[in-house]
Amino acid sequence: MIFLTSAGFTNPNVFKLLKESSLKPVQRACIIANGMQPLKEKHPIALITRNYLVQKGLKEVDFYNLEFDDPNTILKYDIVTILGGNSCVLFNLVKKTGIDVQLRKMGDRGSHIIGASAGAMLLSSGNKYTKYFGSIIGITEDISEDTHGLGFTDDVLFPHYDMLLSKVKDLEQQLCRIELEHNIKIVRLKNMDFIYVDSDGNKIYIEG
Predict the structure, then answer these.
(1) Are 112 and 72 spatial neighbours (Cβ–Cβ below 8 Å)?
(2) Predicted TM-score (pTM) of this structure
(3) What integer best gives the mean pLDDT of the chain?
(4) How high is the pLDDT of residue 24?
(5) Residue 173: pLDDT band by 50, 70, 90 thresholds?
(6) Closest CA to 32 of 150, 137, 200, 190
(7) Contact, 199 vs 22, CB < 8 A?
(8) Hey, what long-range contacts does 71-77 have (CB within 8 A, 24 or more apart)?
């Protein structure tokens, strides 16, 4: 199953649904934290994610480094969690290393892939509109060489909507402006919300 989230396993229903839908026991997981610049696997969110999965009883929870690890080794995992951070760094590394091909294989065979924030953008339509989002929330980020996502869904995601709504006074008006200018529909993904794609390709939006 594919899970698009703002904050990974913050909503416990993500792991609950993942486990309930598994045809076999989930025992091995890896975490991709290359977007969490500059700390990467040492970032607090990365460490919290690892500890969470260990506490859930998984036998093996590793960090997978896009820069150094063999792309073929990722195929052994039952769960791949792709954390957010700098979407440009994340997208460029995924495309450069060819891990996107392996992730598609895993998705097609029914492995569980969880994307958090920029990781969710990677699994869906991409980060083409991140430059516009960044200007709204005061973040400057380079443009990815290839802005296309892996296309498990065609959603244009705006993660952390509720959190940012409390910080940016005219956020909704700005998002509506972008929708009109580019003829798109932006999915406002709150921190506890998630979207999942089941084994039959059905897309379900779960509100937190």
Answers:
(1) no
(2) 0.94
(3) 92
(4) 82
(5) very high
(6) 150
(7) no
(8) 71/97, 71/98, 71/99, 71/101, 71/102, 72/102, 74/30, 74/99, 74/102, 74/103, 74/106, 75/102, 75/105, 75/106, 76/28, 77/28, 77/29, 77/30, 77/106, 77/111
pLDDT digits (tens, 9 = 90+) for 110-143: 889 999 999 999 999 998 898 888 888 877 767 7
Q: In the structure, what pLDDT confidence band is assigned to residue 44 with cuts at 50, 70 and 90?
A: very high
Omega prior to 25 cis, within 30 of 0: no
**DSSP 8-state assignment for residue 2:** E
* Range list of β-strands (E), the chain: 2-5, 28-32, 60-63, 79-82, 112-116, 156-159, 186-189, 194-197, 203-206
**Domains along the sequence of the chain with CATH:** 2-206 (3.40.50.880)
**Encoding tokens for residue 95?**
């495309």
- Residue 141 tokens read as 């980020």
